[in-house]
Amino acid sequence: MSDVNQEQRLTYRQSQAMETKRRIVTAARRLFSEGGYAVTSIEQVAREAGVAVRTVYTAVGGKKQILSAICDEWIVESDVSGLAGRILTEPDAPQRIALMAHLNRTQWELGRDVIPMLEAAAASDGRVVRMLANWKDQRAGIIREAVKGLAPALRPGLRWEDAAATVRALSVPELYSQLVRDESWEPDRYETWLVRLLTAELLTGP
């Protein structure tokens, strides 16, 4: 077998493996969202994805690993890495705040099924509690770095540490859910509101 044919075979197998994993993660995301993390079995995930139970474990892992893969998929969908990079390199303070609000809106909008899933899973699985805590720490770190870069532009008397705490408090998914789901706000309205609020709190003052 030539090196070219072997490489093509490897590429095909890798592509098939990625597609199998995608099907499993998509099926699990739907089942965890509709039926609940705790009561959904690996057998149900396998049946929904159209694969063998053994394939689920081989391609992704157990339920905690599947949930982690769902979160990874959500983070990619939300372009967290790309938007965070833009935020941290944006020199203009109002534009940096606008990007922070956009990342917040995008993440909660695309994760409207994932967030309740994570919270429910954490209630029944201590490993998920640790995973969720780690994710929150990473998100808090991005906010700290983003706000620290705003320090020269913050309103007089406002420490960047306090400004970061304000951003974290106003950026929680519960607030997005209350306004968009419960109060029927459009996501665009939420994003505009958050930009105005953060600008007032961090830059211009009351």
Question: What's the topology here?
Answer:
Blueprint: H1 3-35, H2 42-49, H3 53-59, H4 63-77, H5 80-89, H6 93-110, H7 114-122, H8 126-148, H9 160-170, H10 173-182, H11 187-204
Helix pairs in contact: 1-2, 1-4, 5-6, 6-11, 7-8, 8-9, 9-11
Q: Can you tell me about this structure?
A:
This protein folds into 2 domains: 3-62, Orthogonal Bundle (Arc Repressor Mutant, subunit A); 78-204, Tetracycline Repressor, domain 2 (Orthogonal Bundle). The chain is built from 11 helices and no strands. It has helices spanning 3-35, 42-49, 53-59, 63-77, 80-89, 93-110, 114-122, 126-148, 160-170, 173-182, 187-204. The radius of gyration is 21 Å and the shape is elongated. The model has no long low-confidence stretch (mean pLDDT 91).
Portion in strands = under 5%
Describe the largest sheet. none
If helices are DSSP runs of H or I spanning 4 or more residues, what is the number of helices? Answer: 11
CATH topology of the largest domain: Tetracycline Repressor, domain 2
What's the mean pLDDT score?
A: 91
Shape type: elongated
Order of helices and strands: HHHHHHHHHHH
> What is the CATH C level class of the largest domain, in words?
Mainly Alpha
Low-pLDDT runs of 5+ residues are none
**Radius of gyration in whole Å, from Cα?**
21 Å
CATH architecture of the largest domain: Orthogonal Bundle
Number of strands: 0
For this entry, give a set of tags.
mainly alpha, Tetracycline Repressor, domain 2, 2 domains
